[in-house]
Amino acid sequence: SKDMTQNVVEALRSSMDDIRAMLRKEKPSKKQLALLQLQQLCEECETSYGIKMDLSIDEGEVPSYLWDVILDNSFEAVSNALKYYKCSTIEIEVHILPKFIQCWIRDDGIGCNMMNEGMGIQGMKQRVRKLKGIINIKSEVGFEIQMIFPLNER
């Protein structure tokens, strides 16, 4: 009975290893997860707040470490738009170019002449600069955030 129990344990271990290997293969890519999260954000803004969201992402590869920043900054920008800017449309665009990735987040809200940088905007700037990127923020007409990330800098 000891040998039979040992054989069952070994068979279970082998089966678990097979299941883990299959799950690793089935795991969605960082881009797929990011797209899903951005699409869910768009749907939530449209259904809960009546704000039209346009999402445009070029075909191509974005390094996974950039998706984290793009997602975090997109969520922060949309959160700010919902709180402060009385917008009816928000656009998120990701352009994949040979040497850099460019991301725009725009809304058609009221904008402001004197922008008060809270923790959210400071956090966006820190995340972008940590990756040697550039961030520009305009707020005269609506609110616009442009992020540029160099490739092969990590």
Rounded to the nearest angstrom, the radius of gyration is: 21 Å
Span between termini: 56 Å
* Mean pLDDT rating: 87
Note the run of SSEs as H and E: HHEHEEHEE
Largest sheet: 5 strands, mixed
Number of helices: 4
Our estimate of the beta-strand percent is 15-25%
Strand order of the largest sheet: 1-2-3-5-4
**Net shape:** elongated
What's the total number of strands? 5
Uncertain residue segments: none
Fraction of residues in helices?
40-55%
Secondary structure class reads: alpha+beta
Describe this protein's structure.
The chain is of the alpha+beta class and 154 residues long. It contains 4 helices and 5 strands; from the N terminus they run ααβαββαββ. Helix 2 (30-49) runs parallel beside helix 3 (64-84) and helix 3 runs antiparallel to helix 4 (119-130). The protein starts with a helix and ends with a strand.
Question: How would you summarize what this structure contains?
Answer:
With 154 residues, the protein is an alpha+beta fold.
List keywords for this structure.
single chain; 154 residues; alpha+beta; 5-stranded mixed sheet
Write the layout of secondary structure elements.
Blueprint: H1 2-26, H2 30-49, E1 52-57, H3 64-84, E2 89-96, E3 100-107, H4 119-130, E4 134-138, E5 143-150
Parallel strand pairs: 1-2
Antiparallel strand pairs: 2-3, 3-5, 4-5
Helix pairs in contact: 2-3, 3-4
